Amino acid sequence: MKLKHFDEKTITGLTIRTNNELEMNPATGKIPGLYAQFDETIMVNYQAGEKVFGIYHNYESDHTGEFDVMAGFDGEVNSTDARLKQIVIPGGEYLVFQQSGEMPQCVIQAWQQVWDYFADAESEHRRAFSIDFEFYKSENEVEVYIAIV
User: For position 28, which CATH number holds?
Assistant: First the structure.
């Protein structure tokens, strides 16, 4: 884990509202369905440098409350699909947790690192619960950016 600067970026994608309790149960989790719908709806041009992001925002409170999740990308929108929304990831310093390996297991492992770090009362940083995001660097590498106060 390390502090890293991220430049402001506009992301376009599909959004759902969920909570961690729902996501811990494969029968009620909404995030896998969101990504399946994203893959069917959005044509990401990886050859042109477009990247996929998973954005967590609009937190009701903390990790126990509701929040929005967007599966999105940073490329040109070539669709009039009304389901597509945009969000701006603010530029700034984020605490970054990185994992590589098979998807989605490496994403789960990265989030486990996040939860373990912030569960420790001695942690140097505190979560802002403003906007966090996954940046998919490749088909087997993810960085999870956490907004801190």
Answer: 3.20.80.10
Between CA 74 and CA 88 the distance in angstroms is 10
pLDDT at position 82: 86
Percent of the chain with pLDDT over 90: 87
Cα torsion 93, 122, 24, 110 to 10°: value is 50
99: which 2 tokens? Answer: 């994992």
What is the pTM for the complete model shown? 0.94
Q: How many CB atoms lie within 10 A of CB 6?
A: 17
Residue span of the structural domain in which 11 resides: 2-148
How many Å apart are CA 63 and CA 115, to the nearest integer? 9
Quickly tell me which residue has 């098979």 as its tokens: 102
In total, how many domains does the chain have? Answer: 1
